[in-house]
Design brief:
By secondary structure, this protein is of the alpha/beta class. Helix content is 39%, strand content 15%. The protein has 14 helices and twelve strands. Helix 13 packs antiparallel against helix 14. It starts with a helix and ends with a helix. The structure holds pyridoxal-5'-phosphate. The site of pyridoxal-5'-phosphate has 13 residues, from helix 4.
Length: 379
């Protein structure tokens, strides 16, 4: 008889009924067990509403989904292992061979890759278009267009698309609209309220907020999310780990506090940058001097900490030297965490080398202005 084997494999642990923890419990479990065969039968028949296996549902993951759906004003949300998985699933669940997609040309790189290079293998065609131009979008629509994929503000130039007008145009042609709302977060923009069908986010940015987790989410009607659950989530398995979800849940607790600070600091930096002699153009739609401000402020209640600028200099070596001069803006690809970051397209093969993208973190904005002042002097 092996007593130790029984002790380590059998649980006497029961969840206490009276105590309520202040943080959401981490259900780090791959499966859930049933009291009898009939319960198993029912679970198998309706996996969508059962705790059967964590590739489908998990209570910690659901706690995040409920919070994000409520923030977006949507019926339902599904959390994914990454923003890209959420984007891919939202797109894939709405197309089949022979269909066509219209995608904004300043969308996140991998959303463009999925829509064009990836889906070409399955005979789905895509047209990239400047989605700030309503007529250009209309001209790109074909009889077989099934998806209009948007990201407002756009990924590098942060230009704003007219979401209510684009939603109405798509609706009149029975086209599903998807908006990447990562920049504004559900705190400052709710595309569903403009008639958009599906909203996607990278939770790796502000929703997590601490640069310690990757995740993504799709929000829509219960019917559309149930469809994505059945056609993409369950079969392909872009499942978020419960601990990933737990970290996102913890990050969400302070979303409103962090965002208000990022917004305020970004405006302070915009004031400084907009009159700086090294800067040719500033891209931050919620800055009152921005050409997009009136449209931006009709769609968004605030802004985040990400801004772009075009330098006057075209000297790649000097631009590289300026970026290397930063002490507080660290060089990196992501954003949305507590820390300030700079992304320099000069490091890429095809990017516009005169652009810089800055993430304004939670440091003192005056420290960041000093840092910018020192770096831009190089140019
Ligand atoms: C980072 C990002 C994504 C991709 O999200 P991951 O979590 O990195 O997969 C998608 N859209 C935008 C706008 C992003 O910034």
């Amino acid at each position: 008889m092996n007593k130790a084997a029984d002790i380590v494999t059998h649980d006497r642990f029961e969840y206490p009924e009276l105590e309520k923890p202040t943080s959401v419990p981490l259900f780090q479990t791959s499966l859930f067990t049933f009291p009898d065969v009939e319960a198993l039968r029912q679970g198998l028949a309706d996996e969508r509403s059962t705790h059967l296996y964590s590739r489908g549902n998990n209570p910690t993951v659901e706690a995040v989904e409920e919070k994000i759906a409520a923030l977006e004003g949507g019926e339902c949300a599904k959390l994914f292992s990454s923003g890209v998985a959420a984007i891919a699933s939202a797109i894939l669940s709405n197309v089949r061979a022979g269909d066509h997609i219209v995608i904004a040309n300043d969308s996140y790189t991998w959303a463009q890759y999925i829509s064009t290079t990836y889906l070409e293998r399955f005979s789905v065609e895509a047209t990239r278009v400047d989605a700030t131009d309503l007529e250009a979008v209309e001209a790109a629509i074909k009889p077989n267009t099934k998806v209009l994929y948007l990201e407002s503000p756009g990924t590098l130039y942060l230009r704003v698309q007219n979401l209510p007008a684009l939603a109405a145009l798509a609706k009149s042609r029975s086209i599903t609209t998807i908006v990447d709302n990562t920049w504004a977060t559900p705190l400052y923009q709710n595309p569903l309220s403009f008639g958009i069908d599906l909203v996607v986010h990278s939770a790796s940015k502000y929703l997590g907020g601490h640069s310690d987790v990757i995740g993504g989410v799709v929000i829509g009607t219960r019917e559309s999310i149930d469809h994505i659950f059945r056609t993409e989530f369950l079969p392909i398995g872009h499942v978020p780990d419960p601990f990933q979800a737990w970290l996102i849940h913890r990050g969400l607790r302070t979303l409103h506090v962090r965002l208000a600070y990022h917004y305020d600091s970004a405006l302070t930096l915009c004031d400084f940058l907009s009159s700086h002699s090294a800067v040719e153009r500033l891209y931050y739609p919620m800055f009152p001097l921005s050409e997009d401000y009136s449209l931006a402020s009709s769609q968004m209640r605030g802004g985040s900490g990400l801004l772009s600028l075009r330098l006057k200099s075209r000297n790649r070596a000097k631009i590289e030297e300026a970026v290397n001069t930063f002490e507080h803006f660290r060089i990196g690809v992501s954003w949305g965490g507590y820390e300030s970051l700079v992304f320099a397209p000069v490091a890429t093969a095809h990017g516009d080398p005169s652009m810089l993208r800055l993430h304004v973190g939670l440091e003192d904005p005056l420290t960041l202005i000093d840092d910018l002042d020192r770096a831009l002097v190089v140019l």
